[in-house]
Predict the structure of Polar amino acid transport system ATP-binding protein.
Amino acid sequence: MPSPATQDAVDTPAIEFRGVVKQFGDNTVLDGLDFTVAKGDRVTLIGPSGSGKTTILRLLMTLEESDGGLIFVDGEPYTHEMRGDKRVARSEKQRGLVRRRVGMVFQQFNLFPNMTVLENIIEAPIHVLGWPKAKAVDKAEHLLELVGLSDKRDARPTQLSGGQQQRVAIARACAMEPDIMLLDEVTSALDPELVADVLGVLRNIAETTDITMLIVTHEMQFAREVSNRVLMFDGGKIIEEADPETIFTSPENERTQEFLRAVL
Ligand SMILES: Nc1ncnc2c1ncn2[C@@H]1O[C@H](COP(=O)(O)OP(=O)(O)OP(=O)(O)O)[C@@H](O)[C@H]1O
Ligand SMILES: [Mg+2]
């Protein structure tokens, strides 16, 4: 029997949004959003363009600042906390300690163009985690093997195909050994013949690690195979949530049905 304290740690969600508000000018994109993601969950976010999917991931990378509510990572307040009944911003240092547990891969690969593939991967482990170079290189070489790019170790990003660049971006995110991985349409900018390799790498990571994943994708087959929960967003709200089998075969909400008819 785990002690109550250990049981607590197991039950603490990886991510919790509590009443999160995000506005861009007078456009309220998220209006008191609540949801939790359990540790090891693979959650796919679906929904029409502009429904707030990317905004949620960007909040989790602190690339956007929320206007209300709280976000917790592993039970710890992230960007803001309550002091009495006041919502106060946490320091950049406190945020950084939480952020390093979160990795993100975007549609655009955003590799550092002036660095080699290897240098791209070892940069953050050395400078953010303070790893010795040899340890970071070891890890990077292992990850390059995992994504099938050991022979591109010393290449520059511009010498790689889009699919190869994206696999480097995935390796770079994994190098930080994140607890949470955010994937935003990572195959959308790729030529169709390069999509399968990238999805294969992600499937492999999903099968061999217990990283919590938040996935935004138009690849519904991939979502169906990899995720255990699907959240359907519309207008910054979750309008339906279910396991992938249910949502893709018998969604209840009319707007979900309409959306899936359009994308499937
Ligand atoms: N930097 C920004 N400045 C102003 N408005 C923004 C900004 N980023 C997002 N928005 C607005 O926030 C809303 C949600 O955008 P978001 O990018 O989260 O949608 P999405 O669900 O990811 O859409 P898509 O499927 O097209 O990627 C949209 O109305 C968008 O115009
Ligand atoms: Mg988006």
